[in-house]
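User: Can you model how adenosine-5'-triphosphate sits in this protein?
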Amino acid sequence: MTTLTVPAEPPVSISERSPAIVLEGVRRHYGASDRRVDAVAGLDLTVHRGEIVALLGPNGAGKTTTLDMLLGLTPASEGRVAVFGQAPAHATASGRIAAVLQTGGLLSDLSVRETVEVIASLHSREALRRVPETLERADLLRLARRRVAKCSGGEQQRVKFALALVADPDILVLDEPTAGMDVTARRRFWEVMRADADAGRTIVFATHYLEEAEQFARRTVVMNRGRIVADAPTDRLRASLGARTLSATLPAEGARELLTVLDARPGVTDLRVDAGRVSLRAADSDVVASALLASGAHDLEIVAPTLETAFTTLTEN
Ligand code: ATP
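Assistant: Here's the modeled complex, given as structure tokens:
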């Protein structure tokens, strides 16, 4: 008789099965009760492994406070924060989560290479071996011997990026990571991030550049006054709250009648005519496009709504 042996699965710890990040009923307030600031006023958020999440919100929305709690830099006043099922400080200490933050100084007397080596040596021998590759990925090879004090703001931001990368964390937390970087550095930064995301790294980033969320994050979370006001796939968020903009060259005859009909259509706003071209915003762009073409209008252009429209609608009050 043959016996079928099923190889035992390797033991899986609770942390291996847990989502990357869980925030449940999280609040964080500062100051005494008479002058209390509710920086985070009740937040529920789960981020799964391999997700790329953009955190958007106006100044003071609570983004940095949220990221600080994820990293164990500040405690929640209420609620639960877990990273791979564990306390954030534990995940930070083991290098499973690392960050590029707005605050936090660098040691100005060290060179760029020494700075990355010092931090790598605190993590592991493996991290130390990764230093050359990390300098290359952060586009710092040419600056490796330069003292940090002599680096520009954008270059120092890349040094911070290298410090986060060298730990090879499962989760990267980025608070306005490209602030101060020029266009080329910003593009390169996102190329590296995209490759990391494709390789399965979980990335959570706060930004004021909405196009970074549009181009890079599959999921966008919008915060306002310490709360989440939207949490959706980025393309859906953009489409759900914005009308498409249409423009076309008006026909030689019947333009006046066409404009009257369009103006009266529900869902049509911002109708303007300039140098023989009409432009408008329409909730139902297909119907309006058909009406334009049927009336003899030509050179039709349809532009998709931007994330900025959605962002403004969600956060303007
Ligand atoms: P920004 O886009 O300007 O960076 P943010 O969304 O990151 O803003 P936070 O820095 O999290 O916002 O701040 C949220 C609120 O909490 C703000 O009103 C801020 O003034 C307040 N706050 C943050 N840290 C403290 C602190 N240590 N003491 C008192 N209030 C604080």
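A couple of observations from the model: The chain has two domains: 16-27+39-238, 242-315. The first strand starts at residue 21 and ends at 30.
User: Helpful, thanks.
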